Amino acid sequence: MLEITKLTKVFGQHKAVDAITFSVEKPAMIGIIGRSGAGKSTLLRMLNRLTDASDGSIVFEGRDVTALRGAEKRAWQSDCAMIFQQFNLVPRMDVVSNVLHGTLNRRSTFATMFNLYPQADIYRAIAILDRLGIAEHAPKRAEALSGGQQQRVAIARALMQEPKIVLADEPIASLDPMNAQLVMDDLRRIHEEDGRTVVANLHTLDTARKYCDRVIGMRDGRMVFDGTPEQLTTGVARDIYGADAGFSEAATSTAIETPEREIA
């Protein structure tokens, strides 16, 4: 299904991602954990082709994603939807229009310029919002919603793309615990009910353990762990976060890293 081979990204003299190799044979919910600067966000941006790889390959269903250009690349970015930590909504635009932006890659330039949407797409957008429990906010401006509600709008926009893979880059890092749980519950349901692969950069070990089928640990751009949540022991956490992280058996469930920024 998805095969990543020696995927590498170099910024100047720095290897942000260093020869990452793993494969996904069937739909799964995968958590990627590691300290700030470990390369997690850069990895997801390469998967979505927001950032070009310096070396290595991404193959999905037999197609070399790293070689795609133009319309084929844009089509891949629809198939591989991205959810960001800071939502990336249009604040002054109403919620349903923000969701409909998930269809931009398959609409004509004329329709995009004049915000012309088929009625079927509008109904579908509202249905997705209803599924996520926020349909009543459809006519409101996005900026009027809470952070948790805005992140669910961003999830709805991603679902409008009808993606095969959903990438979530620190989707709960800026949310309070209650909204973080709602967002993670939604991502888990999208995996289970829709049969989609969800890959999420996560900032707490307990979140990875609770929601993910598989956890990948990154340190200094390299993959240092790939296993089940049950295998994510205190010793493994030290390997991922470093001996100076101060983990105890209790602390591994609440350790939080700072949001990662891509190194340019």
From TrEMBL:
Keywords in alphabetical order: ATP-binding, Cell inner membrane, Cell membrane, Membrane, Nucleotide-binding, Translocase, Transport
Example of a GO MF term: ATP binding
Cellular component GO terms held in the UniProt record: membrane
Highest taxon of the lineage: Bacteria
UniProt keyword Cell inner membrane, yes or no: yes
Domain ABC transporter residue range list: 2-245
Stated name of the protein: Phosphonate ABC transporter ATP-binding protein
Source organism of this protein record: Roseovarius atlanticus
Lineage of the species this protein comes from: Bacteria, Pseudomonadati, Pseudomonadota, Alphaproteobacteria, Rhodobacterales
